Amino acid sequence: MNTLRKITSYDAVAFYWCHGFTQLPRLATISRLISRLGDGGLYLALGLSLALLEVQDGETFLMAGLLAFAIELPLYLILKNTIKRDRPCHRFDNFDAFIVPSDKFSFPSGHAAAAFVFATVFSHFYPSMLELSYSIAVLIGLSRVMLGVHYPTDIAAGAVLGVSSAVVALSLYGI
């Protein structure tokens, strides 16, 4: 069995294991709410607010964050449209997602990538928020699996993409 098949097999088992928890009351609703945190508007609102209100690092945080997202987004689109991995809700006949995905393909997770870009840049400027920001990023990623639109490795790949993009941006920005 080649490596890709092993990963796909693991992903299917892990995906269905996660979905055993969706039988818990309100978990799908909670997952939807958490997933919405990663839609992007909150990142921009926080960045603009900090740029306006936080004199010491707010503006630099916003600019470094924008650069990180400018690196992450094209890479995400290239990967997603090159790999073209079907979403679990499209692949499994006996499964319906709890939300309608925004596009056809699942790898990597854009929500996870963006959440980890934000967590990495935010925790760089505000180290006391490291645990909270990464915890929220992990929850956003998990919510996408729980909603049925991503496999666990989609989330892991999104996390790697997000952290890497943020580290490159912080380096390019000279921070």
Notes on the protein architecture:
The chain has helices at 3-19, 27-37, 41-53, 58-83, 88-91, 110-125, 130-146, 152-172. It is an all-alpha fold and 175 residues long. The protein has one domain (3-172): Phosphatidic acid phosphatase type 2/haloperoxidase (Vanadium-containing Chloroperoxidase, domain 1, Up-down Bundle). Helix 2 crosses helix 7 (130-146), helix 4 (58-83) packs across helix 8 (152-172) and helix 6 runs antiparallel to helix 7. It starts with a helix and ends with a helix. 37% of the residues are buried. The mean pLDDT is 83.
Q: How many domains, as an integer?
A: 1
Strand content: under 5%
Which parts are unreliable, with pLDDT below 50 for 5 consecutive residues or more?
A: none
Top-tier CATH class: Mainly Alpha
- The second-level CATH architecture is Up-down Bundle
Shape: globular
Based on CA atoms alone, the radius of gyration comes out at 17 Å
CATH superfamily: Phosphatidic acid phosphatase type 2/haloperoxidase
CATH topology: Vanadium-containing Chloroperoxidase, domain 1
Structural class: mainly alpha
The succession of helices and strands, N to C, reads: HHHHHHHH
- The percent of residues in helical segments reads over 70%
* DSSP E strands, number: 0
Largest sheet: none
CA-CA gap between termini: 44 Å
Tally the helices: what do you get? Answer: 8
Question: Residue-averaged pLDDT, rounded?
Answer: 83
